[in-house]
Design a protein that fits this description.
92 residues; mainly alpha; 4 helices; 78% helix
Length: 92
C-alpha cells in the first residue's frame, strides 16, 4: 500500500470531520464512523496491491511463453493489470 495505515486513519478522520462540518452527515458516534471509514479506505487502497499480486502470479505462469515470444514484462504487466482492473470494475 502506498500510504501507511496511520495516514489513512488521519485521512478518514479529516473526511468525517469535513462531512459533519458541512452537515452532509450527522452522527452521534463519530469514532465509530471514523473507524468504518478508515477500514473502507484501507480496503480500497489494498485493492491495487491485490491486483498487482494477481498479475505477478499470472505472468509467472506464462513466463516461458513470454521468453519465447520476446514479450516485455513491463508491457505485459500493464496489459494484464488493465484487464484485471476492468474485470473487478476497479478504479485505480
Amino acid at each position: 500500500m502506498i500510504f501507511s495505515r496511520e495516514y489513512i486513519g488521519y485521512l478518514a478522520r479529516r473526511t468525517v470531520k469535513h462531512l459533519t462540518d458541512a452537515k452532509m452527515i450527522h452522527t452521534a458516534h463519530t469514532p465509530l464512523v471514523e473507524e468504518r471509514v478508515t477500514s473502507g479506505m484501507i480496503e480500497e487502497m489494498a485493492l491495487e496491491d491485490r491486483i498487482n499480486e494477481e498479475v505477478r502470479v499470472i505472468l509467472e505462469a506464462y513466463q516461458q511463453e513470454m521468453l519465447r515470444s520476446g514479450a516485455q514484462y513491463a508491457e505485459m504487466f500493464k496489459k494484464v493489470k488493465a484487464e484485471l482492473t476492468r474485470k473487478y470494475k476497479a478504479v485505480l
